[in-house]
Design a protein that fits this description.
Layout: H1 2-25, E1 38-42, H2 50-55, H3 81-88, E2 108-110, H4 127-146, H5 158-163, E3 165-169, H6 172-179, H7 185-208, E4 213-217, H8 226-229, H9 246-269, E5 274-278, H10 280-289, E6 298-302, E7 304-305, E8 325-326, E9 333-335, H11 343-354, E10 359-360
Parallel strand pairs: 1-2, 1-3, 3-4, 4-5, 6-9
Antiparallel strand pairs: 5-10, 7-8
Length: 371
């Protein structure tokens, strides 16, 4: 009887949280007739279908089962954080730059591709390549407008590119690769400045063509991902009080510290630029540490995977691979597939971002399109 009552209360709490998130997500919006324009760069945390369009990868159901009811190329059961942020602006979801059919680029484009890193910079789809794709997109758009060619009426103008928000969320794959190498901890830490330098170069390039408004996400707690927790280990001495791997999280925190310093330095260096640094790590770790408060039941276990408790992650039978199993209710889980978050978790992450409490400076997400 007690268990049944607990399930009811948990369901009620999740309903209340979804209601609160929905209210917060739709509370913003741009001024008057201003069309919000966003250009996003990153990895699978914000890829809205780029990897599927670019390489032809298929991500069938249960990916996309919650909101879309179909595959969208997102590595999630529903919406990503970037989707909720677009909803807060009352604009459509960002179309992947590489999607040739059905795309609408009036409100920007998404250059993020699953698996992307900062380095090596010449390997698809590294951050620098994403920026080069953007430069081509911008140049081609302005060329078509200048010559009034067919289809140019709905393209972004020079003014649109200048007042756009440029969002960057990358680095997780760089750190994960470094941690999976044979490098010592000190040498792994020593690789971070090179990753940060690539983010700096990207911001400088975008600033050089008129970009003035930037929104930078740091990386999440890698040591709390079921994928990392399922790795073989001698004992549990590296686990913190919430069951996360301290070494992985320590590397992530050092990356975030250097990224925060970079944003401070560039804010002071670049005239008329606004660079908002957002602490995604703290938001996500709070979800895991206080999962009951947010209505979750399985903070460190993948909804879609194989192997059962404690992590339901097997690298040989990951989500969508032959033999995988998916939970019935993803809203009880933070992790969707061992690496990426569920829509339920992404909704709360987005709502926390929109409070401005995790950003430096504390600006509303829609600051770039306010009159």
């Amino acid at each position: 009887m007690g268990s049944g009552r607990g399930d009811v209360w948990a369901a009620m709490l999740r309903f209340v949280l979804i209601f609160i998130v929905a209210a917060e997500v739709v509370s913003g919006g741009c001024s008057g007739d201003v069309m919000p324009v966003l250009f996003n760069f990153g990895d699978s945390n914000s890829d809205t279908g780029g990897i599927a369009a670019g390489l032809g990868y298929r991500f069938p159901l249960p990916d996309g089962r919650v909101f879309f009811g179909r595959s969208t190329g997102r590595l999630c059961d529903g919406r990503l954080v970037i989707d909720f942020l677009c909803e807060s602006l009352k604009t459509s979801y960002l179309s992947p730059y590489l999607e040739s059919l059905g795309s609408d680029f009036r409100n920007g484009a998404n250059f993020a591709i699953a698996g992307s890193k900062t380095l090596p910079r010449d390997r698809p789809f590294a951050l620098d390549i994403q920026v080069q794709q953007f430069l081509h997109f911008r140049s081609r758009s302005l060329e078509l407008i200048t010559h009034r060619m067919v289809g140019s009426r709905n393209l972004i103008s020079e003014e649109g590119f200048q007042r756009a928000l440029y969002t960057i969320d990358i680095g997780q794959n760089d750190l994960a690769d470094a941690m999976s190498s044979i490098l010592s901890y000190d040498r792994i830490i020593g690789t971070i400045p090179a990753f940060i330098a690539e983010i700096r170069a990207a911001i400088m390039t975008l600033y050089g063509i008129g970009g003035r408004k930037f929104w930078i996400h740091n990386t999440g707690p890698l040591g709390c991902l079921p994928q990392k927790l399922a790795l073989p280990r001698k004992d549990d001495s590296d686990l913190d009080k919430n069951g996360c791997l301290k070494a992985f999280n320590s590397v992530a925190m050092e990356f975030n510290n250097q990224l925060s310093i970079l944003c401070d330095e560039m804010s002071a260096e670049l005239k008329n630029a606004t660079i908002v640094y957002t602490d995604i790590y703290s938001i996500k770790y709070d979800l895991i540490a206080n999962y009951i408060k947010y209505g979750f039941e399985k903070p460190l276990m993948a909804c879609c995977g194989f192997g059962g408790a404690p992590y339901n992650y097997n690298p040989n039978i990951s989500c969508l691979n032959s033999g995988y199993q998916a939970c019935l209710d993803g809203s009880k889980y933070i992790s969707w597939d061992g690496v990426h978050y569920t829509e339920a978790a992404n909704a709360i992450v987005a709502s926390k971002i929109l409070t401005t409490e995790y950003s430096k400076p504390k600006l509303n997400f829609d600051y770039f399109c306010r009159a």
